[in-house]
Structures are given as structure tokens and as C-alpha cells.
Design goal:
Layout lengths: L3 E7 L3 H19 L4 E4 L4 H7 L5 H9 L2 E6 L14 H11 L4 E7 L12 H4 L3 E7 L7 E9 L2 E7 L4 H16 L4 E6 L5 H14 L6 E6 H10 L6 E4 L1 H12 L9 E8 L5 E7 L16 H13 L4 H16 L18 H13 L2
Parallel strand pairs: 1-2, 1-3, 3-12, 5-10, 8-9, 8-10
Antiparallel strand pairs: 4-5, 4-11, 6-7, 11-12
Helix pairs in contact: 1-10, 1-12, 6-7, 8-9, 10-11, 11-12
The structure holds 1,4-dihydronicotinamide adenine dinucleotide (NAI) and magnesium ion.
Length: about 375
């Protein structure tokens, strides 16, 4: 059977950018013989409108079976006042939790044509290609005890940073596996100077590294890591870090590369019976209600998320390279959606024109 992809377009610009990705998926079927069984379902506000909850049980079951899930974005003003238990975000959180997607991959890659767009100097970011691996299912966002408690005559807010050895180990393995396919360097970031979980993190990562003698491991305190990311980001290949530090460091790295409309992500879990990891691919951006329905959204983040699926779920690294090169070519040719425009008076293209430009570049590849 063909590998399966479950598409969950979601809300706002999610369906708009996903339309372009569907064109790209068809192109790989028609022109490269990569056939996928593609099905589509609802998530977020769109699912709430139909089922009264942001992810139906049948959809959850389909996601568990799929070789890869591709998600657009969820949320929007129409759902802001809903009860927390049925908010659109909860659909996404349920997917991540029940699929146990513990390893979040956030590339920060700077396309030459957009280097002027970075918040940093061009020579600091030109050619940048790093990957942040963030542990996604544990740490301080989940640790118990948590809550706001009475203590004496005032209240105290408590969260607990908690990591087991096995949680650290599986995140570390995914970083080392990734480094083997890239520049063979892992920099692990924690705060072992002030945190017990950081001490254990460093110890376990060092132990796992013995299984990957080709990979060069270094350790860095996360606060210094933030500084180094902005000072000299090209020193890194793979950065491995926990849930909280990863949240912050990946947003910081994102700004090295320019627009939110360019950033893909992957969240991976344990291997399934067929050897493929449980996997969810999605752009980093949200549903962008301010531009939804206007054909202005940049589809590249979602297209590059599909490139990650080709690479990490379907073992099609050279086809992923082909797709990324097509995006690079389109940008080098000066094709720009509105979010990528400077002051040079270039006319922006629409979402579908950008998708078509990528298809044309694929045809020429
Ligand atoms: P956002 O990412 O949706 O938008 C932030 C800004 O970036 C907006 O000005 C938007 O127009 C622009 N932008 C985002 N993606 C773009 C693209 N592909 N092309 C061009 N411009 C783009 O974040 P915001 O405004 O904080 O949240 C809007 C809604 O999205 C909220 O309901 C929020 O909860 C939800 N959200 C969903 C996420 C997800 O589905 N993973 C992630 C972040 C927010
Ligand atoms: Mg964040």
C-alpha cells in the first residue's frame, strides 16, 4: 500500500496554505512516482463547529494510523470565548499528547535571498542551517505538583521541572540520529549549574552520546546558548534542549531567519510497527485571522513542513532537497508574498501564485 498522509487544514489561513501543499503532493505523485494515500479531516474550530469538540475521536484514531499527519493551523477570534476544554488549541494538544510526540524539530534555515530580512546582520545569518530539538511532552509544563496554593497568608504559584532518565534519553537519541544525517554536531543546552534536572540531563545525554561516536557533543548553559544563538548562530548544527528552554530558544532562532511564514516544524514520537515514527508536521505560524480569506498567506512554511515529512517520515531525503531547492529558487527569483516584502516596491504574489511558482520551479528541476 502507499504511505498515508492525514491532512488537517484547520482554521484561518490553514486551509489556504494547505491547498498549495496538496498541489505539491500531487506533483510528487505525477512527476516523481511518489504516491500517497491522502485523506483529510477537521481539527480546531472547524471540528468544533461540526462535532462540538476540537478533535473528534474518529479523527484522533485516523491520526494514530497515518504515516504522517500534516496540520495547517488552529484558532481564531470566533473561538476565543469558548470554554478551555473545547478551545481549538486543545485539538492540537490532544494530537501531540496521544501520539506521544516527544521530539519537536524546529529548523532555522536562512535562505540567501531573505538574509536581509533577518533581525541580524547578513553575514551572521547567510547560509545558516541549524536544527533545534525540543523535548515536547515533559518538563516544567507538565511536572507535578503544580497549582496555586495558600501558604500562610498569601498564595504561591508552583510548577515543577521534572525529567526522568528515559524521557531525556529518547529526546537525546532523536537529536543524535538527526545529527548523523546532518553536520554530526550536537550542542545540549540546560542549566546544570543551578538545576538538578539539568545535572541529570547532562549526564544522560553524555551517556547516550557513547552510542554515536561520530557525533561531536558539547554542552552549554541555556542562557549562554541564547546569547550565542544571536552572536554566532552558525557555530551550531543540532541543538538539543528541554521543553521550556526549547520554547524560548526556538522562538529566538526563528527571528534569525525572518518571517513566520517561512518556518516549518515536525513533532516525532516512537517508531510504529512499519518503522516510521509517529509524526505531525505543521508550520510554526498560527491561523493569522488578520489576513485569512484574502489570499495573502505565505504557503512556504507549510510547504517546507511537507518537505520535512518527505525527509523524516518517508525517507525521501533527495526529494526533500528537491522541494527545498525549488523554494530557494522561487525566492532567489524575487517572488514574494506580502509578508516577505521590503521597501523596494515589488508587487506581492498571492498564496496560490506562490504555490504555482514552486510547482514551476519543481518542473524545471
Ligand atoms: P499568527 O502566527 O497566526 O500570526 C502572527 C502574525 O504573523 C500575523 O500578523 C499574521 O498575519 C502573520 N502571519 C502568520 N502566518 C503567516 C503566513 N503564513 N503568511 C503571512 N503572514 C503570516 O499568531 P497570532 O496572531 O498570535 O494567533 C492567531 C491565532 O492563531 C490565534 O487563535 C492563536 O491561538 C492561533 N495560533 C495557532 C497556532 C497553531 O495552530 N499551531 C500557533 C500560534 C497561534
Ligand atoms: Mg513559543
Amino acid at each position: 500500500p502507499n504511505p498515508s498522509i492525514l491532512i488537517l487544514p484547520g482554521d484561518g489561513i490553514g486551509p489556504e496554505v494547505m491547498t498549495e501543499v496538496r498541489k505539491i503532493i500531487s506533483w510528487f505523485g505525477d512527476k516523481r512516482g511518489l504516491q500517497f494515500d491522502v485523506s483529510e479531516d477537521l481539527v480546531g474550530g472547524a471540528a468544533y463547529d461540526k462535532h462540538g469538540k476540537p478533535l473528534a475521536d474518529e479523527t484522533m484514531a485516523k491520526a494514530q494510523e497515518a504515516d504522517a499527519v500534516l496540520l495547517g493551523a488552529v484558532g481564531g477570534p470566533a473561538y476565543d470565548d469558548l470554554d478551555f476544554s473545547v478551545k481549538p488549541e486543545r485539538g492540537l494538544l490532544r494530537l501531540r499528547k496521544e501520539m506521544d510526540l516527544y521530539s519537536n524539530l524546529r529548523p532555522a534555515q536562512c535562505f540567501d535571498a531573505l538574509a536581509d530580512f533577518s533581525s541580524l546582520k547578513k553575514d551572521i545569518v547567510a547560509g545558516l542551517d541549524i536544527m533545534i530539538v525540543r523535548e515536547l511532552t515533559s518538563g516544567v509544563y507538565f511536572g507535578e505538583p503544580r497549582g496555586i496554593f495558600e501558604e500562610g497568608n498569601e498564595r504561591v504559584g508552583i510548577n515543577t521541572q521534572r525529567y526522568t532518565e528515559s524521557e531525556i534519553e529518547r529526546a537525546a537519541r532523536s537529536a543524535f540520529e538527526l545529527a548523523m544525517r546532518r553536520g554530526k554536531k550536537v550542542c545540549s543546552m540546560e542549566k546544570a549549574n543551578v538545576m538538578e534536572s539539568g545535572i541529570l540531563w547532562r549526564e544522560v545525554v553524555t551517556r547516550v552520546s557513547a552510542d554515536y561516536p561520530e557525533v561531536e557533543l558539547s554542552h552549554m548553559y541555556a542562557d549562554n546558548g541564547a546569547m550565542q544563538l544571536v552572536r554566532a548562530p552558525k557555530q551550531f548544527d543540532v541543538i538539543l534542549t528541554d521543553n521550556l528552554f526549547g520554547d524560548i530558544l526556538s522562538d529566538c532562532a526563528a527571528m534569525l531567519t525572518g518571517s513566520l511564514g517561512m518556518l516549518p516544524s515536525a513533532s516525532l514520537g516512537a517508531p510504529m510497527e512499519n518503522g516510521r515514527p509517529k509524526a505531525l508536521y505543521e508550520p510554526v505560524h498560527g491561523s493569522a485571522p488578520d489576513i485569512a480569506g484574502q489570499g495573502k498567506a505565505n504557503p512556504i512554511a507549510c510547504i517546507l513542513s511537507f518537505a520535512m515529512a518527505l525527509r523524516y517520515s518517508f525517507d525521501q531525503g533527495s526529494e526533500a532537497d528537491r522541494l527545498e531547492a525549488a523554494v530557494e529558487k522561487v525566492l532567489a527569483d524575487g517572488v514574494r508574498t506580502a509578508d516577505l516584502l521590503g521597501e523596494d516596491g515589488v508587487e506581492p504574489v498571492s498564496t496560490s501564485q506562490m504555490g504555482d511558482a514552486v510547482l514551476a520551479a519543481l518542473d524545471a528541476s
